[in-house]
Amino acid sequence: MGKGFLLLLCLVTLILACNRNAYRVTNKTYKKQVKQYAKVLRQYPLQDSVSNAPFFAGTTNFSIRRPNFVVIHHTAQNTCDQTLKTFTIPRTAVSAHYVVCRDGTVFHMLNDYFRAQHAGVSKWGNNTDLNSSSIGIEVDNNGSEPFSEPQMNSLLQLLDRLKRAYSIPQANFVGHADVAPGRKVDPSRFFSWKQLSDSGYGYWYDTTNITVPEHFNAVQGLRIIGYNIKDSNIAIQSYKIHFTPQDSTRILGEGDRKIIYDLSRKYQ
Length: 268
Fold this sequence. Notes:
Elements: H1 2-19, H2 24-43, E1 69-74, H3 80-86, E2 98-100, E3 106-108, H4 130-133, E4 134-139, H5 149-166, E5 173-175, H6 176-179, H7 193-198, H8 218-225, H9 232-243, H10 254-267
Helix pairs in contact: 8-10
């Protein structure tokens, strides 16, 4: 009886140990860093760079960072656990606000008001620092496989909450490849941007009855949409990853001209 009870106790202890949050240590680090930022704000609430003003006159009209874009990535790793580990190791210096796993589980890794390190060197329209104005979402996918139905459903639910919470415009849901052409290709050609657009996240095209003006410049149309056209070839590549994923060329045909013309009217 005593041995049986001891065995049961060991088994229960083992189960509880397995069920403990594997990120309890890094969660403590997260909370510690948040407290450090709060301490700095309490200690130095003004950080006044003006020395000759007679006094500080604090405005009553201000707020903290509110995201205005959502940038979607694929993780380029094989499991959610790999990605969570990557984002909890200081030396990687990369992060995201959310990770959406293949089974639809969503991990919230960073407060929406904080700046994550997910977009890197990026540009969309006149915005040259997407990290400072966006929420980064990583979808668990290695880049060479379709995205699962559960994770797409969870992603759509997450986007709905974010769009309503921060009044994010439909045009401002973009991919990493869009804002970092040539440097990034995620969330890959397998990602269904039309599915997102049908729900109000990003725009899609409809070339029915579209007549392109004779002198329409398609590359300038990409600029109107938001692409950095400094290198037109990689801008075309990123456009095709997003809007014509079946086409891996860097040539704009008449079909592309129709698509870009229709999109440019939506995004301008």
